[in-house]
Design a protein that fits this description.
mainly alpha; Recoverin, domain 1; two-stranded antiparallel sheet; 10 helices; 4 strands; about 5% strand; globular; disordered N terminus; binds calcium ion
């Protein structure tokens, strides 16, 4: 599947070290919940459960059933895109490979011959499964359910992922522009999109995980 010609993607494309580090940070800190070194349904099920528990959703409530269905879909879509050897696990290598494929600019064969320079990455939408996942992550942060994440909520939820309070607060101040910009779902999605795709270290989305520096 997906050889150079049929995929139409530049297969020489490599993610920058900056982007790789961000993606691995995301993989290790947030996706691999049980710290097994790989992603499995178990990791997604644990996140789903955590969101339901924190939100006070009873196991058979409409909200809980919806979360369950969405998490199954997210996991199935991720598997389709990343689980190359179909063993039900996504390794770090498969994760990076998937992102490399997604990021590889579409090229015409003639362009490839003309220039060895890598085309600039343009920010596009996240894959649909990830966008759904980001929405649930927003609801994990938004403890008071007012549609906005504040600095206390951000610090509180990240402490669960072992992010020091000082870093979480500093990061929040950066991407909220000194708390002048409301962090609602739309802005949170924009920042997340930037986190996964930006090559520019000063972009505000790079601070969305509470980590202050990459490479
Ligand atoms: Ca795992
Ligand atoms: Ca696999």
């Amino acid at each position: 599947m997906g050889n150079e010609i049929s995929s139409g993607r530049n297969t020489d494309y490599q993610l920058s070290p900056f982007r790789r580090e961000k993606l691995m940070h995301e993989f290790n800190t947030f996706f691999d919940v049980n710290k097994s070194g790989g992603l499995e349904w178990k990791d997604f099920d644990m996140t789903r459960k955590k969101i339901c528990d924190l939100s006070g959703w009873e196991s058979n409530s409409e909200d809980s059933l919806r979360a369950s269905s969405i998490f199954h879909t997210v996991w199935e879509n991720l598997q389709e895109q990343a689980d190359e050897n179909n063993d039900g696990k996504i390794t770090a290598e498969e994760w990076i490979k998937m992102w490399t494929k997604l990021a590889a600019p579409r090229v015409k064969m003639t362009d490839k011959i003309k220039s060895k320079k890598q085309p600039e990455v343009t920010l596009s939408r996240l894959p649909a499964w990830l966008e759904k996942y980001v929405e649930y992550r927003f609801s994990l942060y938004d403890r008071t359910r007012d549609g906005i994440i504040d600095i206390e909520e951000f610090e509180y939820v990240l402490s669960d992922f072992n992010v020091p309070a000082k870093n979480a607060r500093a990061a929040f101040i950066i991407f909220s522009k000194n708390q002048e910009k409301q962090v609602n779902l739309e802005y949170f999605k924009q920042l997340s999109c930037q986190y996964f795709q930006s090559e520019e270290p000063s972009d505000l989305g790079n601070f969305i995980t509470g980590k202050l520096d990459f490479l």
